[in-house]
Specification:
Blueprint: H1 9-22, H2 24-27, E1 43-46, E2 49-52, H3 69-78, H4 93-96, H5 101-113, H6 129-142, H7 157-167, H8 173-176, E3 194-195, E4 202-203, H9 219-228, H10 239-249, H11 253-265
Antiparallel strand pairs: 1-2, 3-4
Helix pairs in contact: 1-5, 7-11, 9-10, 9-11
Length: about 280
């Protein structure tokens, strides 16, 4: 990876925005033990056991400082590390795979601009994680090559911006879309409710279905939730969604509104999932 001194400040700023929207700092910072930002070590409680997150600072020995841009892109688009091992599906690389080449370069520029932190990896996940890695490897082999998201020429700029954010750093489908036995999204039930790959808990239907989704929510209701975490019935989201709301709060108002415009437009899916 290139040195921070060579980075374009505008690219670093754009990458910082993307990293904030994706919540890279939340996953890759051991806040419980006052760890350095992006230095990893947060232990995630997942269906594959306790998973410590890796160091993504540019430390060459214990972080990603020795990675080439090609290494970074392969990890983000395919979930494959430079040593050819597959990341567990809790890393949402299928969504980051949709990022444009320019946004991936900006994200790399931002991470490379961080101060390197030496933090040896903690003990890795147990043997149950091998199942997850095997499934991830099979899913990658059976999935069409990852390509950046492309705008719909028949839609306006606001809709396209919302669609892009949902498909990439927002990664709404990671929790809110049901999956097949290999963990691949069931596209005919997209955003119709699913299971969080991080916590294993149910995620609701967020399509405009009036009976089982959010069809009765106004655009203002959805935008308010993205900014505050409060639902129209004055409940507060928790768990994984609370972290997503923290990320969405860091978006510009225009970007949150674009997400709302897009979500209001997706096909309604009838689902047994609760609102």
């Amino acid at each position: 990876m290139q040195g921070a001194a060579a980075a374009d400040p505008d690219a670093v700023a754009r990458g910082a925005y993307l990293a904030a929207a994706a919540g890279c700092d939340q996953c890759h910072t051991d806040t419980a033990h006052h760890g350095a930002p992006f230095a990893g070590g947060r232990v995630l409680d997942t269906p594959y056991g306790a998973i410590p997150t890796p160091n993504i600072t540019p430390d060459k020995a214990t972080g990603i400082g020795a990675w080439s841009m090609a290494d970074f892109v392969r990890a983000m688009r395919w979930g494959i590390a430079p040593d050819d091992t597959h990341y567990l599906p809790v890393f949402p690389f299928p969504f980051y795979a949709r990022l444009s080449d320019g946004d991936l370069a900006d994200l790399q520029a931002f991470l490379d601009s961080r101060a390197p932190v030496s933090r040896p990896d903690p003990a890795g996940p147990g043997s149950i994680a091998l199942i997850g890695r095997t499934r991830a490897a099979i899913a990658v082999a059976l999935t069409a090559p990852a390509t950046p998201w492309r705008p719909d020429p028949h839609r306006d700029a606001v809709w396209n911006r919302g669609a892009y954010l949902v498909a990439t750093v927002g990664r709404c489908g990671d929790c809110h879309t049901a999956r097949d036995a290999l963990g691949r999204p069931e596209q005919d039930r997209r955003l119709g409710g699913g299971i969080s790959r991080l916590s294993g808990k149910k995620a609701p239907n967020i399509t405009p279905d009036h009976a089982t989704g959010i069809g009765d929510w106004s655009a203002a209701d959805i935008e308010h939730l993205l900014e505050t975490g409060e639902t129209p019935d004055f409940d507060l989201v928790g768990g994984d969604m609370a972290e997503i709301v923290h990320n969405m709060r860091r978006l510009t108002e225009a970007d949150r509104r674009a997400i709302v415009v897009y979500l209001k437009s997706v096909p309604a899916v009838s689902s047994p999932a609760k609102k």
